[in-house]
Specification:
Number of helices: 26
Structural class: alpha/beta
Strand order of the largest sheet: 7-6-18-17-16-8-9
Number of domains: 4
Radius of gyration: 25 Å
CATH architecture of the largest domain: 3-Layer(aba) Sandwich
Strand content: 15-25%
CATH class of the largest domain: Alpha Beta
Bound molecules: iron/sulfur cluster
Largest sheet: 7 strands, mixed
Number of strands: 29
Helix content: 25-40%
Length: 836
């Protein structure tokens, strides 16, 4: 019986290079329930991070009472992490679930019924369409809906209303991953496979605190670094995370660049490849364009120049580059330390450049994982709920628009394609001015998660815009809305979702939602029906009624595109494992890694974008793209480093950066309602380095005030592992307090301090480059409420360890029975079979 709060990654199962990751089945049931008590197990995948671990939900007496990993699933081989184990089901029976629609009467939300609530939404929608047209509507959705729901919303928004104002909170989270993949390879889609971990001899983690954000994936890496012939780890992170410690242990490097200087470091690493002759010239000549321009861009970034800008040792830059240049198979992973930081897309593209220069892509162990944060972010991007056109189509290519118009039987001019889709930050600006008069927010909590929180609060509660929120609970955002629609959650509805490595899972309905709550799909269908959206033949624009019908419609619209689902069906997905797209006649069992043949979707008529200038965001035109004639070759692109928008000053001498902790997910809507997870990280804190704390006279647990030019928080201080000059705050905490015992609940929202500024290409806001000052307010009542098991560990001993998860069980299986057992079925798991 293991406490997986204290033991985050669970029992190790070390193994050697090129061998199968052993299966280990993790299980947790509610206290007092034994396996024999479970009525039935229902197939699903975990919805609490982008790893997408295959699992089964335990059901007893019509309630979800536990979860078990699936040994046969290619993603996790049976494992689950603390969030999956303790956070998957407790929220569902929480007494504060929304069970009836709410409508605003004056300054109060009052319980209502579906006819009244949806009637208000439809009346306002029709009025705005009649008076102001489609640009009066905005949709801001999530990274946690199902594929069928995103696709339905995309059809409604693009072909029913015709608005370009659609985006999701994926803009805050994975927009840079998508943008970087498009810039280098011509289309979104993860090149790498998790099985690259089994084959690589070096792993570079760029701004990716994987031990906390994707715990099962980190367990997979630990099982390699603790086995025979381990890979070396290189960590790029301003905090001394567990990744940094593993880098030191494996003979790798920890590079801790000053906040906001990632691109200078990446340019330095790239230059080293050129200088030392580590470029695969034959491969790059046949499979890339732009190498001369890239070499010119990075030429000034000597290791000494990089050291001046980034505050890292020149020798460490050289060592890291040598590891990359001399390894035969490098795996790179990237996350928010790059995506939410200054020059985000250029920095993420630079990771691709390193792989392309070495010809290390698509081969076993040579992969790139531009990770997602949220579990269904990939579907949001695929289906077009983030504003893109469904199926990775190019809004600037009229033939792509016409393909959709034919599929939906609408006039192509209905589909907004005269300009780029509106990104989230601009959507909220339009809502602020009232030019968007109806903003529909689904399954996300922007009042807590968006930058410059005071401004977002004012936008949502103001009279200039009618705000609809559909969610599981009365979140900080929902309580300011005009209409609140109660939604069903994971396990209460059926649908598919796709993880960060393109692996598609089916999640079946296990129990009924509470009260009058409805699935997001049913809510969107009810709106479409009430609005009377029709196609050119006068038939309903959205003809499907069930998730499976919506899925089939989606599969057919992906035909011929990189994101090809045409070989998938619910029946296929009811097998032993998730399946990575593309799934079609050529790849009937899916494809573990993309680009093994060195051919990329960059043809001008096929690509998802013509690309951008990485420094300014200026768009490349179709004519310019055609003149380059990439024709299946990848782009090598670079940009010079520029200083961040805010630099430390006398008034604000420190750099402020936000992030996550392993025990909470996003704004804690689910994880905050798990007693185990909430106890492990119950309240906000800030982390200071030892030198900064000493200079400011701050000790562990002291109350401090952290201020930026935009706002302030007052929380307790952890004197911890962050680099000198930086202050770290977890972003999860709004004023909602599940136990009513968090003393800092009223003034702890990390985004009070962040600023409204975004990357010129991906439009992802920067959460990691603000300035701040810290002042001591007084003694605390003990240590900071920060976990000790994570990168937030205290610098000095004496703080009680984080524990208290309650029992779980874990069984290491003697032989890995994971799917597919036949090596000829090489697509879904290429550990045994080699690449397709
Ligand atoms: S690693 Fe992610 S998907 Fe897997 S169990 Fe943990 S939270 Fe869920």
């Amino acid at each position: 019986m293991s406490d997986r709060i204290a033991d985050v990654h669970g029992t190790a199962t070390p193994h050697g290079r090129g061998t199968v990751w052993p299966a280990r089945v993790d299980l947790r049931l509610e206290p007092g329930i034994a396996e024999a008590d479970v009525d039935r197990w229902v197939q699903s995948a975990c919805l609490l991070c982008s790893n997408g671990c295959g699992c089964d939900i335990a059901v007893k007496d019509g309630r979800m009472v536990g979860i078990r990993g699936r040994a046969t699933d290619v993603v996790n081989h049976g494992r689950l992490g603390p969030k999956g184990l303790y956070g998957s089901t407790d929220w569902a029976s929480s007494p504060d679930r929304l069970t009836r629609p709410l409508v605003r009467e004056g300054d109060r939300l009052v319980e209502s019924d579906w006819d009244t609530a949806m009637g208000r939404v439809v009346a306002r929608s029709k009025q705005l369409l009649a008076e102001k047209g489609p640009l009066s509507h905005g949709f801001y959705t999530s990274g946690q809906l199902f594929l069928e729901e995103y696709y339905t919303q995309a059809v409604i928004g693009k072909a029913g209303i015709g608005t370009p104002h659609m985006d999701g909170n994926t803009r805050l989270c994975t927009a840079t991953a998508a943008a970087a993949l498009k810039e280098s390879f011509g289309a979104d889609g993860q090149p790498g496979s998790y099985t690259d971990i089994e084959h690589c001899d070096a792993i570079f983690l760029y701004g990716h605190n994987m031990p906390e954000t994707q715990t099962v994936l980190w367990a997979r890496i630990l099982d390699r670094t603790r086995g025979d012939d381990p890979p070396r780890i290189v960590c790029v992170d301003p905090r001394r995370t567990a990744v940094a410690r593993e880098a030191e242990r494996t003979g790798g490097v920890h590079l801790a660049p000053r906040v906001g200087t990632n691109l200078a470091l990446m340019n330095g690493l790239t230059r080293e490849l050129f200088v030392h002759g580590w470029v695969d010239e034959e491969w790059t000549a046949g499979h890339t364009v732009g190498i001369d321009d890239l070499e010119a861009v990075v030429e000034p970034y000597t290791p000494e120049h990089v050291a001046d800008i980034c505050g890292v040792a020149a020798a460490d830059v050289r060592r890291a580059a040598r590891i990359f240049g001399e390894s035969t198979a490098v795996l790179s992973t990237v996350l928010q330390g790059f995506y939410q930081s200054h020059q985000a897309t250029a920095s993420a593209v630079a990771v691709h450049n390193l792989h392309l220069l070495r010809g290390q892509i698509g081969r076993p162990g040579s992969g790139v994982l531009q990770m997602n944060g949220q579990p269904t972010a990939q579907n949001n991007r695929e289906c077009g709920a983030d504003g893109d056109l469904p199926g990775f189509r190019n809004w600037d290519n009229i033939q792509h628009v016409e393909q959709l118009a034919r599929a939906w039987d609408v006039d192509p001019m209905t589909i907004p394609h005269w300009a780029p889709p509106t990104h989230a930050m601009q959507i909220f600006r339009y809502a602020e001015t009232g030019s968007i008069g109806l903003l529909w927010i689904s399954a996300t909590n922007p009042v807590v998660s968006m930058p410059q929180a005071a401004r977002i609060r004012d936008i949502v509660r103001g009279d200039q815009c009618f705000v609809v929120v559909q969610d599981l609970f009365l979140t900080e955002t929902a309580e300011l809305a005009d209409v609140v629609l109660p939604a069903a959650g994971w396990g209460e509805k059926t649908g598919c979702f796709t993880n960060a490595t393109r692996t598609v899972h089916l999640s079946e309905k296990a129990v009924d939602p509470p009260g009058e709550a409805r699935s997001d799909l049913d809510i969107f269908l009810a709106y479409a029906d009430a609005m009377g959206f029709t196609n050119l033949d006068g038939d309903p624009l959205v003809p499907w009624r069930t998730p499976e019908e919506a899925f089939d419609a989606w599969c057919s619209v992906t035909a011929g595109r990189p994101v090809d689902y045409t070989g998938l069906s619910y029946a296929r997905l009811r097998g032993p494992t998730g399946i990575p797209w593309p799934v079609n006649e050529q790849h009937p069992d899916g494809l573990g890694s993309l680009y093994a043949d060195g051919v990329f979707p960059t043809d001008t008529d096929y690509c998802e974008t013509y690309g951008h200038d990485l420094l300014t965001g200026g768009a490349v035109t179709a004519v310019e793209h055609r003149a380059i004639a990439p024709a299946g070759r990848a782009f090598l692109k670079g940009a010079p480093y520029t200083p961040a928008h805010e630099e430390p000053s006398e008034e604000y001498p420190l750099l402020y950066t936000t992030g996550r902790t392993v025990y909470q997910f996003h704004t804690r809507t689910k994880t905050g309602r798990s007693r185990s997870l909430d106890r492990a990280a119950p309240d906000a804190w800030v982390e200071l380095s030892v030198p900064d704390a000493e200079r400011l006279g701050i000790s562990e647990g002291d109350r401090v005030r952290v201020e930026s030019p935009r706002g302030a928080i007052e929380v307790r201080a952890r004197v911890g592992q962050v680099m000198e000059g930086a202050v770290f705050a977890p972003f999860h905490y709004g004023h909602w307090d599940p136990s009513g015992s968090a003393p800092d609940a009223g003034h702890r929202l990390a985004n009070e301090l962040t600023m409204t500024v975004w990357d010129p290409v991906s439009k992802q806001p920067y959460f990691k480059t603000a300035v701040c000052r810290v002042t001591r307010l007084g003694d605390g009542d003990g240590p900071a409420p920060a976990p000790t098991t994570t990168a937030s560990a205290p610098a000095r001993a004496g703080v009680p360890g984080t524990a208290g998860g309650g029992p779980t069980s874990s069984e290491v299986l003697p032989q890995t029975p994971h799917y597919p057992l036949d090596p000829s079925q090489s697509g879904a798991d290429d550990t045994r079979a080699g690449r397709s």
